[in-house]
Inverse folding.
C-alpha cells in the first residue's frame, strides 16, 4: 500500500461529491441567467450616460443606434430595432434623420408595445414613430411590423409574434429602445402585473392596463432580455425619483419596478438621461460616473 493514499471507497465518495457539487453550481448559474427575477439587480446591469443638453442627448442616442445598425448590417445584412412610444420618438428620431448615409432599406422596425387602436389613432405608438421617422425614410413597408387593430388583443399579440419571427431570426432583436414611466413601467409591463412572470412568449397581450387605453400588446421580458442591445431614454425632472430607485435601490419585491427587470443577457442596458432626470442620483453614483466619459456624455 502507498502511504498517504485514501482507500478506494473513500476516494470514490470524494469524487462523486465533487461531481455533484460542480453540477449544482452549473445549474445555479443556468437558472440565474435564464429565470426572470423580481428581487435584486446588480449595478453591472446598467450603464448610464448623462447628457448636458437636449441636443447632446439626441445626437448621442443617434450615434449609438447607428453604431449598432452598422454592426448588424455588416454581420447579418439586416438591422432590427424596436421603438417605444411616449416621448421617445421625439427624443431619438431627429438625430437619426440628420444622418445622410443610413441604410434604411436594411432596417426592420418593430414596436416594444402597442395600444390596440387604429394605426392612425393619437394613442398609436406606430403613428408616433411614423410621424417622427418612418415617413421620412425609405424603410420598406413590409419591413415595418405593425399591430393588426382589427383583432382582439390576444389574437393581435399572437399574430405580432408570428410576424416578428418571420422577419427577425429567432426573435432576437438587434436593439430595443425603451422609455420608462414614473411608476417604473416599461413597454406595457406594469408594476406587479402577472405579465412580469411570462416566460414562454415573446409578445403578450394585456387587457387591464392601469394606464389607458387598457387593451395592449407588449414585448415580454423574455423578448427584451434576449435582444442584442437594450437602451433606455429617460428625460425630465418627473423621472428623477424613479430613476434613482431603479439605479440605486437593491430591492424590487414582486416586480415593483419593472424597468429593473430589464437585464439583457448580452450585457448591460444603457440609460441615456438628461440632467433633470439624473438630479437625484447619489454623490457616489455621480462620482463613479465622472470617472469615464464617452462621446461627450458621462458614463459609469
Amino acid at each position: 500500500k502507498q502511504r498517504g493514499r485514501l482507500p478506494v471507497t473513500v476516494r470514490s465518495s470524494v469524487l462523486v461529491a465533487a461531481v455533484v457539487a460542480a453540477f449544482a453550481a452549473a445549474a445555479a448559474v443556468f437558472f440565474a441567467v435564464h429565470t426572470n427575477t423580481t428581487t435584486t439587480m446588480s449595478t453591472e446591469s446598467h450603464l448610464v450616460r448623462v447628457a448636458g443638453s437636449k441636443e447632446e442627448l439626441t445626437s448621442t442616442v443617434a450615434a449609438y443606434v447607428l453604431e449598432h445598425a452598422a454592426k448588424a448590417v455588416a454581420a447579418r445584412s439586416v438591422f432590427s430595432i424596436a421603438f417605444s412610444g411616449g416621448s421617445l420618438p421625439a427624443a431619438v428620431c431627429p438625430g437619426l434623420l440628420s444622418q445622410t448615409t443610413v441604410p434604411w432599406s436594411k432596417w426592420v422596425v418593430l414596436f416594444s408595445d402597442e395600444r390596440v387602436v387604429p394605426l392612425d389613432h393619437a394613442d398609436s405608438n406606430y403613428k408616433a414613430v411614423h410621424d417622427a421617422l418612418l415617413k421620412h425614410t425609405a424603410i420598406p413597408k413590409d419591413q415595418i411590423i405593425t399591430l393588426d387593430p382589427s383583432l382582439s388583443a390576444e389574437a393581435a399579440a399572437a399574430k405580432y409574434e408570428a410576424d416578428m419571427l418571420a422577419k427577425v431570426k429567432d426573435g432576437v432583436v438587434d436593439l430595443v429602445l425603451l422609455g420608462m414611466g414614473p411608476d417604473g413601467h416599461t413597454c406595457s409591463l406594469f408594476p406587479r402585473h402577472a405579465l412580469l412572470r411570462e416566460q414562454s412568449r415573446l409578445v403578450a397581450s394585456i387587457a387591464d392596463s392601469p394606464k389607458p387605453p387598457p387593451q395592449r400588446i407588449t414585448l415580454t421580458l423574455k423578448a427584451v432580455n434576449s435582444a442584442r442591445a437594450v437602451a433606455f431614454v429617460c428625460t425630465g425632472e418627473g423621472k428623477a425619483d424613479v430613476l434613482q430607485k431603479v439605479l440605486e435601490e437593491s430591492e424590487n419585491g414582486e416586480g415593483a419596478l419593472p424597468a429593473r427587470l430589464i437585464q439583457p443577457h448580452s450585457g448591460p442596458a444603457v440609460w441615456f438621461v438628461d440632467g433633470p432626470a439624473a438630479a437625484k442620483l447619489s454623490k457616489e453614483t455621480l462620482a463613479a460616473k465622472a470617472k469615464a466619459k464617452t462621446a461627450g456624455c458621462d458614463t459609469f
User: Anything to note?
Assistant: Confidence is low (pLDDT under 50) at residues 8-43, 290-300. The chain has eight helices and eleven strands.
